[in-house]
């Protein structure tokens, strides 16, 4: 009985160690999956923000805005020498 | 202890050793293959990489892919014809490229590699704004404007119109031409812009100088054909005046004193016969017959830009040789080392022609306080095998500024309608507007003594 008790204890302790490692592995896997999902969401967000950024500030949009608001290129403005 | 008990002990020990080894193996495997944030040996993904990004010279993304494979164009209408488009399934996922750079750079983009272009979004937008306004006012069918950096041959802008939205539902490509990059895919007659090249060849061959005088009636006959001038002018013209009045009679009479192969040599050196003058993009094949097939009238026509077809890109690269003091540079759209230059004209020849084109520039191309030069062109278009009396291409090719050019610009408008159809009326103002925008972009104030001469 004593032999069975010793080996049984060893078996149980190894089983608990294995179970604990498995638990941590699963947790780590889930954390990675969550992080990857978060990363993908952030990438989508960056893409959307990039598109929005250029929809509002691209050179063509700014130029159209300037024209519609009466701005003209510096080079076609009226220039006068100092004192005139 | 009996013999049987001893045997049983060994069996139990061996069984436990096996069990221990199995558990140990399991633990080692767990330790080696535990999940990690950074995998030790990442396995190559079997999924196709997302399509590569097309970038402007400043890093602005021009075409990019979402995670789902959708193709996106952050600048919208800008440069859309140059970029082209790719196949699109009902979910919006992009397939292989069908037009423009999406098609021409398919192998690179499909492998997930990014490509940086020479286009400058600021220059591109100002060329597009000027071109689209002109298309609206002239009611032209389509137009294109190229801006090329004179010292490198890099294309800073390739504008096309009407505007094309790459994300919108596609129309019938045979009926709606807004998707087409006319600058690369349409071969046309350069018309009177060619006179600058003919004049440069005359100077290069020492057959004339800018003061050489020629009898120039308003029309004369060559090889059974009548050559006419459109603009009234004095009966005798210098070569500089031939360029100013854009006299077909004057340039063809002056060129008649030169072997026709000399003009063809210039055209070859300027790559007018080269269908692959630019790496990375497909170009329409130019159509230039060799001089052995030219009769007297064909040669006369060639001197003022009729009887052969080149793309607006060919014309821009040729004019850029004049801007670059006579050295031809291959045009460039994909960033990389600048191509090797090739001398076509002596530097003093290129400067003389630029001066003549500055002094005689069309009033609509002038900008107070700056020196601008260039040549107009109004080319009849062949419709059903004959030169049409109603369909024209209006052209302008010039330098900004013309004394020390930073860029070369070519503008083409196809089939403008109404009373204003000439290059000087519809294409020159686009050039002027591009120049005004560029000087502002460069922060260059006007010098009131620097304006191009008035007539």
Automatic annotation (TrEMBL), chain A:
Claim: Membrane is one of the keywords in the record: yes
Chain segments annotated as coiled-coil in the UniProt record: 25-52
Transmembrane regions: 7-24
Record keywords: Coiled coil, Membrane, Transmembrane, Transmembrane helix
Name recorded for this polypeptide: Cell division protein FtsL
Taxonomic source organism: Calidithermus roseus
From TrEMBL, chain B:
Highest rank taxon of the organism: Bacteria
GO molecular function annotation: penicillin binding; serine-type D-Ala-D-Ala carboxypeptidase activity
Entry-linked PANTHER family: PEPTIDOGLYCAN D,D-TRANSPEPTIDASE, PEPTIDOGLYCAN D,D-TRANSPEPTIDASE FTSI
Major subcellular location class: membrane
Localization: Membrane
Gene name in the database record: penA
Domain Penicillin-binding protein transpeptidase: 143-435
The keyword Metal-binding belongs to this UniProt entry's keyword annotation: no
Keyword set includes Transport: no
Documented EC number(s): 3.4.16.4
Keywords: Carboxypeptidase, Hydrolase, Membrane, Protease, Transmembrane, Transmembrane helix
Transmembrane segments: 9-32
Species name: Calidithermus roseus
Protein name: Putative peptidoglycan D,D-transpeptidase PenA
Pfam family, one: Transpeptidase
GO cellular component terms listed in the entry, alphabetical order: plasma membrane
GO biological process: cell wall organization
UniProt enzyme class: hydrolase
């Amino acid at each position: 009985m004593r032999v069975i008790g010793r080996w049984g204890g060893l078996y149980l302790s190894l089983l608990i160690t294995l179970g604990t490692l498995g638990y941590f592995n699963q947790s780590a896997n889930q954390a990675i999956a969550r992080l990857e999902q978060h990363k993908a969401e952030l990438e989508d967000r960056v893409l959307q923000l990039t598109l929005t950024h250029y929809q509002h500030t691209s050179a063509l949009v700014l130029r159209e805005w300037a024209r519609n608001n009466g701005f003209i290129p510096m080079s076609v403005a009226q220039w006068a020498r100092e004192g005139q | 202890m009996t013999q049987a008990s001893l045997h049983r002990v060994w069996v139990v020990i061996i069984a436990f050793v096996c069990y221990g080894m199995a558990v140990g193996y399991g633990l080692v495997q767990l330790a080696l293959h535990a999940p990690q944030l950074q995998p030790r040996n990442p396995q190559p993904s079997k999924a196709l990489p997302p399509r590569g990004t097309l970038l402007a010279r400043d890093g602005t993304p021009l075409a990019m892919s979402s995670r789902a494979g959708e193709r996106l164009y952050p600048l919208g209408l800008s440069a859309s014809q140059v970029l082209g488009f790719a196949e699109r399934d009902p979910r919006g996922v992009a397939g292989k490229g069908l037009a423009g750079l999406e098609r021409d750079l398919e192998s690179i983009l499909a492998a997930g590699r990014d490509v940086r272009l020479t286009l400058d979004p600021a220059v591109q937008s100002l060329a597009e704004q000027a071109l689209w306004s002109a298309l609206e006012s002239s009611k032209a069918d389509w137009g294109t404007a190229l801006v090329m950096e004179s010292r490198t041959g890099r294309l800073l802008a390739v504008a096309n119109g009407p505007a094309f939205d790459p994300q919108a539902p596609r129309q019938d490509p045979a009926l709606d031409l807004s998707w087409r990059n006319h600058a690369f895919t349409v071969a046309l007659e350069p018309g009177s812009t060619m006179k600058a090249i003919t004049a440069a060849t005359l100077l290069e061959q020492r057959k004339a100088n800018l003061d050489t005088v020629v009898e120039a009636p308003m029309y004369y006959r060559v090889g059974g054909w009548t050559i006419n001038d459109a603009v009234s002018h004095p009966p005798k013209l210098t070569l500089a005046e031939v360029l100013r009045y854009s006299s077909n009679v004057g340039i063809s009479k002056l060129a008649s004193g030169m072997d026709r192969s000399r003009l063809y040599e210039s055209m070859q050196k300027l790559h007018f016969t080269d269908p692959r003058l630019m790496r990375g993009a497909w170009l329409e094949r130019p159509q230039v017959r060799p001089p052995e097939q030219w009769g007297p009238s064909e040669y006369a026509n060639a001197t003022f830009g009729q009887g052969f077809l080149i793309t607006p890109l060919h014309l821009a690269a040729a004019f850029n040789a004049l801007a670059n003091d006579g050295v031809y540079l291959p045009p460039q759209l994909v960033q990389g080392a600048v191509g090797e230059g090739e001398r076509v004209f002596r530097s003093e020849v290129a400067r003389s022609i630029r001066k003549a084109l500055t002094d005689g520039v069309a009033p609509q191309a002038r900008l107070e306080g700056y020196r601008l030069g260039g040549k107009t062109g109004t080319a009849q278009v062949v419709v059903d095998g004959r030169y049409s009396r109603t369909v024209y291409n209006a052209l302008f090719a010039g330098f900004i500024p013309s004394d020390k050019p930073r860029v070369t610009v070519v503008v083409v408008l196809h089939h403008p309608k109404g009373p204003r159809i000439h290059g000087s009326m519809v294409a020159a103002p686009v050039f002027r507007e591009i120049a005004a925008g560029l000087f502002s972009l460069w922060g260059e104030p006007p010098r009131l003594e620097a304006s191009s001469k008035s007539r």
